[in-house]
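Teaching assistant's notes for section 4

Start the section by putting this record on the projector. Ask students to predict, before seeing the second block, whether DUF2971 domain-containing protein will look compact or extended. Collect guesses on the board.
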Amino acid sequence: MIDMLVRKQLTLLSYRTWIDANDRRALQLYQDNLNYGFVGAMCLTQAAETFHHWQVFASGDAGVCVVFNRARFEALFAARPHFRARSMEYVLLDQIDEIEAVDIDRLPFLKRWGFRDEREFRVIGFAVEQCNSLCAGFEPSLVERVIMSPFAHPNLVESARAALQNIPGWEGLRIVRSQLTDNQSWQTALTSFVQRHGVFYGPWIETQFDFSGE
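Reveal the predicted structure now:
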């Protein structure tokens, strides 16, 4: 994220280190079929914040979520001939052979049905020559806010906010800490739940537990 803000560039990296071998195979076939020297990708989600996102994609207290303006993001890549951006298609295993294959550019955007909860939006970049990455410059208005991990200490969030907003062009960047796992409004509502339930007075149930195994 720091690199992205300092250089005001989005970086697409190689797919070759991805955990999902099916996904790696799709992009490799795409690259080989079109004789590209390099194919890179950036994977995003269209889903609302979930615990799964923080644990899988941005684990630890250094995880961050960068929220982009959707319309500006799509317009950014629509104007660039060596990039393609679109939502992923999730397909059942017994349906893959039935998909019309006339559009080879559809291949990098196919994924197995079991990944559908990710609601992924993917950017693909390609180059004739071999390279290690592809970059796309952008204006600060593309970024709506940055959400820091719910596992980050509040003091770390304050320090990070001061440092990031000191980067030229990002003085007004909105930076917040996720409240997914520690939300005061939720906890207040739980307290209210108990208070509204009331207190029941009755006899204790006396039970004798025998741990002797007899």
